[in-house]
Amino acid sequence: MQIIGCDLHTRQQTIAMLDTTTGEVVEKTLLHEGNSVREFYSKLSGPVRVGIEATGSMQWFVNLMEELEIDCRVGHPAKIRAAEPRKQKHDRRDADLILKLLVEDRFPAIWLPSKELQDLRAWLRHRHQWVRMRTRTQNALQSMALANGLRRGPSLWSQTGQQAIASLPLAPHTAYRRSELQAMYEKFETEIEKLNRRVEEQASERPGARLLMTHPGVGPVTALATEVFLGDPARFQDSKALASYVGMIPREYSSGGRQRLGGLTKQGNPLLRFLWGEAGAHAVRRDPELKRFYRRKVSQKGFGKASVAVARKLGIRLWIMLRDQIEYKEFCRRGQKQQKSSDVRAGMPETR
Predict the structure, then answer these.
(1) What is the pLDDT of residue 20?
(2) Which of 100, 220, 269, 276 has the greatest number of beta carbons closer than 10 A?
């Protein structure tokens, strides 16, 4: 068997290859221009195992390994780096480290989504980018309206409100900026509406998303994003592992019997955290147990931390529904059963 530790970059890769039969180690650098990478890996005979660190530009290489039927493992960058105590770091040492972890069976492999999930993730990120651009355009128009004494609030985005801001007497350059912003806002509204319809179609076709939409306050975008970004729900051991994966746990610097907690780690997916926060704000108005939980946290911690706590609890609920393949009513029934037993859990839902 041939085991390869690969330090992958955008323009080149440095490899350390071990032949387990002869014990020979070969070090080499391959440029990504041309067909040199494909030719090198296609000429390898026998079973081959390749290890790389997870990077944003690795997908083409993973697809190539899948095409050549080569076992490719993607590792956690922070855990790989933690295995090297020395402070020297360069491409050759990184490739040797990955090879060493593969040989010793200590390589920290991570879960990889399928091509379908990757495509849906890219699509949801595209929609979110359009929403952010629309928000920036709205903020610019709102600022322009307030600066000229036009105070309409949310009604500024209605047809009457847009006509009111279009009729403001402005200087030539400011008037040109206003017309361009209004045209951009109209374009964003049209495109986002198309994307929302496609999201609704995809969510209605996926069983997991349909289950999540039964929870009050959870719409097609949040349901589809939760299923797509979490992937296989069974890979999370418990709710703490889920919250850590999404980045909704506090930083901790505790030592010597003294606990120091900071802000959120934010090491997970920012889009999923954002959507859970928005859905949590809607869910507290419709779910009585979440409303009581939110009010209790507001009195204890304040509005900001209470909102984060609700978002985390909602995300855990959605994960449980996805893992057990149950709807909201069944989740409530199980919550009531646990409340009646000795194993009482705070924040479990009730049915009206």
Answers:
(1) 86
(2) 276
